[in-house]
Amino acid sequence: MRPSTAGRETSFPDTFSKAVLTSSAVSVPYFWLCARVSASRLTIPTCQLDFALPERFDLNFIGEDNKEHRPVVIHRAILGSSDRFISFLIEETKGFFPVWLAPVQVKILPITDNQIEYAKEIETELRRHKFRVELDESNEKIGYKIRKAQLEKVPYMLVLGAKEQEENIVAVRSRKDGDIGNMKVDEFVAKVQKEIDNKVIG
Length: 202
Fold this sequence. Notes:
Distance between the termini: 44 Å
Shape: elongated
Strand order of the largest sheet: 8-7-9-10-11
Helix content: 25-40%
Radius of gyration: 27 Å
Number of strands: 11
Order of helices and strands: EEEHEEEHEHEHEHEEH
Number of helices: 6
Structural class: alpha+beta
């Protein structure tokens, strides 16, 4: 049965969604604060006015009239529950997390076994800068490795062949822009660190 909202209407600014639900058991209205994102209203934080707990715990306060009054308990959850908020992030980004949020920020892809040791050196250097890195040591072809990393939605891939090893550089691929050229390792570190520090979304 749909709960009654009679007598519960409240005016809110345009930035808030006006939605009132009343539990038939405890008469608790819930006011959802909604953010506008991509021209749609998204429910994230909640503020709940609880009239039941003060009754249950017999809560009182002395008002300005020197008489006892029953308070209202306000439950505030800015991000909601952690699992609900993570689900929201995954749904909204479709898993394409920005580099500072991605579980794996960089994937290192050696072309042949001859580049494994060089790849491990790069991995060690990136981990020294606290980057979240994975090294693909499989015997698959480089095209397959790149495809796999793209499907895993890793923000950056470092392709390492004989040329990169000889010149002590990395060939950088972006999940969004594809091949973005060769860089020195310190140049790549500076690029990614800047995105992390500035919390770049794109």
